Amino acid sequence: MARRGPRPGGADTRADILVAAERAFAEQGYDGATVRRIAATAGVDPSMINHHFGGKDELLMAVLELPMDPQPMVAAVLGASPTAPGAALLRRALAAWESGPGQLTIGMLRSSLHRDRTVGLVRQLLERRVLAPIMAEMTVPEAERPWRVSLLATQMLGLIMMRYVIRIEPLASADHDQIVTAVGPTIDRYLQGDVD
Question: pTM to 2 decimals?
């Protein structure tokens, strides 16, 4: 006889929850995605989310960290293009943002505009997984790195917002080469040029 209702937590439960949560957060944003709905999609009892992750906030952090790790990209780009890393960084970032995991991140940014708690989660993610690795790879004096990476973040996040969230034209439909040509030199300046 087939078992009805949520299955007990097993070896695949955590992975199933992450898959369901990724879909829910991407489609419904933080506020719309409920623990009960995520659990139902994963076929588990809602208590399994608390058991494996601690709660909805921690689940969001796990989902945000799961799809793509920017650290290898940052190291590869800054290491391979020491004189003009802006173009290489932008090319990789544009490709990442237009991927499935990138769309999830954009969905989280949309959601974070409406909720202080989500803003904090996105800020933590950006500081730990994006900005800190960039600072670690920078070749400028250490004291300058926080200022420079903050400026870089304004450029990159502004680009995400205008191109993917608000969709301002002609930026929203511009090809990668146009964006790289226009914005790459600014990224280079923030990473290693004059910012005084």
Answer: 0.64
